[in-house]
Specification:
mainly alpha, globular
């Protein structure tokens, strides 16, 4: 028994070191990409800003459709929040993005629940049987599960769109997930 605990401790240390190394490599890669592609990123943000400003009264609807579509299709929304805040101001931009984000989360959850749940749940149960069952039981436990989903959403390690789809494969109810 004691040898197994030592092995688990060594595995945990190796995972922590590997995770730390992965974060370091990601930060360096992002910094290098920013240095190399910085002007392209700024140009892309400016294009988005111009598109929104020139859309007139259609702009909020355009933002809503782009945001919901990107959330459902698990596409990156890099800079989108910034552009919305810059064009509409902090409060109006935050309200528009929050509303769009909530609608996108709900739609992605429903797509996951009613189109992909059987397949994905089968895969997850085959690969992570006891762990997936425990996670499903915890997340599906009413308001306690809603708190768990809220805390998962605060984590920068799990992408927002992925959380929508994973929660759709559990027994949680839709309002706890959104």
């Amino acid at each position: 028994v004691h040898g197994g605990e030592s092995s688990n401790c060594s595995n945990m240390k190796a995972r922590v070191v590997a995770g730390g190394l992965a974060v370091f490599v990601a930060v360096v890669a992002i910094a290098l990409a920013g240095k190399h592609f910085g002007s392209d990123i700024i140009r892309l943000l400016k294009y988005g800003e111009d598109l929104i400003e020139n859309a007139g009264w259609w702009a909020p609807l355009l933002i809503f459709v782009i945001y919901v579509s990107s959330t459902v299709l698990v596409l990156p929304l890099f800079g989108f929040h910034t552009v919305c805040g810059f064009v509409y101001g902090t409060v109006k931009g935050a309200l528009l993005v929050s509303f769009s984000q909530t609608a996108g989360a709900g739609l992605a959850f429903l797509v996951s629940r009613y189109l992909f749940r059987g397949f994905v749940t089968g895969v997850l149960k085959n690969r992570f049987n006891e762990k997936f069952t425990a996670i499903d039981a915890a997340i599906g436990s009413g308001w306690k599960g809603a708190k768990i989903v809220f805390l998962i959403r605060l984590s920068p390690l799990i992408p927002y769109s992925v959380t929508n789809y994973v929660c759709g494969c559990t027994s949680t109810f839709v309002f706890a997930q959104i």
